[in-house]
Amino acid sequence: MDPIQEALRPHPGVLLILSAPSGAGKTTLARRLGAELGEDGLFSVSYTTRQPRGAERDGVDYHFVDRAAFQTMIDAGDFLEWAEVHGNFYGTHRSYAEAAAGKKAVIFDIDVQGGEQFKARHPEAVSVFILPPSMEELERRLRSRGTDSDEVIARRLAAAHREIERGMQCYDCAIVNDDLDRAYDDLSAVVRASNLRLLSR
Ligand code: ADP
Ligand code: 5GP
Question: Which of 31, 80, 150, 185 is the most exposed place for a label (fewest CB within 10 A)?
Answer without folding.
Answer: 150
